[in-house]
UniProtKB/TrEMBL annotation:
Organism in which the protein naturally occurs: Clonostachys chloroleuca
Molecular-function GO term, any one: ABC-type transporter activity
Membrane topology summary: Multi-pass membrane protein
Keyword check for Membrane: yes
Similarity remark: Belongs to the ABC transporter superfamily. ABCG family. PDR (TC 3.A.1.205) subfamily.
Listed name of the protein: ABC transporter domain-containing protein
Keyword match Ribosomal protein: no
Domain ABC transporter: 91-328
GO cellular component assignments: membrane
Amino acid sequence: MYNSVGMNPGQDFVLNNNYIDSTFGYEWDNRWRNFGILILFVSILGCVYLACAELICEKKSKGEVLVYPRGQKPASARVGNWGYADLEAFEQNRNVCYDIKIKKDICRILDHIDSWVKPGTLTALMGVSDAGKTTLLDYLGDRLSVGVITGEILINGIPRDILFQGKTDIHLHTSTVREVLQFSAILRQLAHISREEKLAYVEEIISILNMGEYADAVVGAPGEGLNIKQRKRLTITIELVAKPPLLLFFDEPTSGLDSQTSWAILDLLRKLTNIGQAVLCTIYQPSYILFQQFDRLLLISPGGKTVYFGDIGEKCGILTHYFESNGVHHCPPNANPAEWMLDVIGNAPGAKSAIDWYKKWRESPQYIKVQAELAGMKIEKSSYGLSPCKEDPGSYQEFAAPFIV
């Protein structure tokens, strides 16, 4: 009697080769033949894969050609007037500090930042990487959830109300531009505003920003549909249709764009300031032409310390005069003032400076003037022809729109 498969007569054990042969029909002597068959399979399948990769072409990109839903045609752009709410309000922040705890140490990210943003002005926020630019925008946009914040930020003497646009452009690729803007307006404008008013406001924004030609175009995935400039413009417009009553903050709106597209985006921001909007945006090493688009500069060094805050001036004259008056070499006529400025303060790659620019700023007449103007803004708002902002009845709600819209 055999008690197990592959057991020979008179044995109380089973050889592994006998068991495998009896159970699976596999002989150990055929192992090299089977290995050769595997190599043959790999070779044949590899050749098939290479042939398919060469002959079967991937679906070609449409080259960012605008795609419209069936039955839709591009509308001609119209120029209209933009009725904006409370464009006389200005933002001011004084002695802003931000500390976070890292293990057992307290790290100061922002160190006594003083600035303001007035209607109709485009203010640049500059500094090297990790200087605290994005952190400052997060603070101004009320997006910080950890750490200790001190100082004050006011809009005409009361707490702020602003909108913030980050670096990335994230959109639903199957929606049209108009649908994206309508969705943002309906959900983000105040609940007491009727749906008809919100949709009418979207059409007004589309008109004033000359987006009518592609308002009915599908957003598409990157590389198809909207091009980079149109996609960035859509990102900015999403914030505008939410009807920001006061300020717009942008985190590196020209990041990753070529010079022509960067100019178009800054031209859009300049158009917003021309109608009274207050805009603050971070920008990294702009060209001379782009830098000239800004009215005012807030320059911070690593550690969130203010190096300069004030007007840039025609041909950057006010800015360069400040640094030249503190003992640095004159800005060459052909140099880019933005790059020259970062070089003289030691924030450019390979550059060093023996001057403590934070201390220089705190001791400068410009700093005293800034403090005096901030005090004047807070105490005598009426001297600027401004009135306190009306408190938003929905500012204490988690969402602007109710669950059923």
